[in-house]
Write a structure and sequence with these properties.
single chain, alpha/beta, eight-stranded parallel beta sheet, five-stranded mixed beta sheet, 16% strand, globular, binds iron/sulfur cluster
Length: 430
Amino acid sequence: MARPMLIAAARRPTRQIHVGPVAVGGGAPISVQSMTITKTADVEGTLAQIYALASAGADIVRCTCNEKEAAEGLAHIVPRSPVPIVADIHFHHEMALAALEAGVQGLRLNPGNLRKEAEIKQVAQEAKDRGVPIRIGVNAGSLHPELYKRFGGATPEALVESARMELAYFAEVDFDDVKISVKASSVPLMIEAYRLASETFDHPLHLGVTEAGPPPAGLVKGTAGIGTLLAEGIGDTIRYSLTADPVEEVKAGRQLLEALGLRERKSVDLIACPSCGRAEIDVIGVARAAQEALESRQLPIQVAVMGCVVNGPGEAREADLGIAAGRRRGHLFIKGKIVRVVPEDEMVAALVEEAEKLVAEGIEARLAAADAGAEAEAEADRRMLIEAKGEDANHSSQKVELIRKTIHEEREPPAPAHDQSGNPRPSKDQ
Ligand code: SF4
């Protein structure tokens, strides 16, 4: 079941920092982050969300610390959190100091909103004394007005300069335990800004497309920006910013890293055929039901849902496990080999049951446990379907014939206007 990890471009070397026990940069696994959307003062509600995020695969969670009650909430949340907590700070440096007091494992400072040099240095000094890293979280939408003016807008250079200035303040108190983000809601701007940041700094980079919006557009934007950079070897930790339940952000982050082969697969990789004239079931509905049933289980295998038994097991023979439909039955197959035939209404349940056994026992053991008559039964279904629908249920040969005829007719040269004796040929209309 171990699948070879796809290698994107070699990861650009960065120094390593630690957010609590989670290493970021310096070749550490790329971590997935998200942010709670509860009031941080609501300790139980926030912790419930943090647990949901952690069980979806979040490595680090950020909570806003915008008022005294939020800082007090953090003091209760941090010791009970299963993952390190980063406090998000805008405008008030006292909130950063209070969050440090609460025991957070990281701070995020927005240099566009927190601008007083003395206050920035005070926070950096305190973070240094406590061994807590800071993310310099530059955001195109809240860029320092002077930089906006100097660069004629929120350009990649302006975003990187904002991070550089903040680093310079930190350097004055000899603090360098830093990661950097240069987010924008524009994907091209964000990509350019991170490319420049990667050339400029050797600090770990936290990737994100900010305010990407609700799915699916938000997912597409996040994937376009984050995925492009990761494929170039840029990025050490990621966050999707979706207008959705933050659990969706974590799922998207994990799935992107797993799809790129940058994190080991923990969850099911569900593939499904696109359906066609041969389909014997509602492929979309069954695939969705299978996804819902399997996603909460940590089963690191590829599972296929295929619309017909005629081609399904063959087309998905690379999948660890699959099910194909035919004659109101489901053919369950492992690596393309039929192991059981079940009634159609038990397809999803059978798939889930077999997936769990496959992960627990391994492929060889499950192949050895195949029902004795399954292959023969499946072959009988397959034959009957081919007889009923023919070899060409999608009418492809018919279409090919039509295509050939059309192209042939277009290419056929027009008949000459005169016959061999030079007399004009009668027009077809005459
Ligand atoms: S041939 Fe069968 S498995 Fe392939 S797309 Fe069509 S229904 Fe799905």
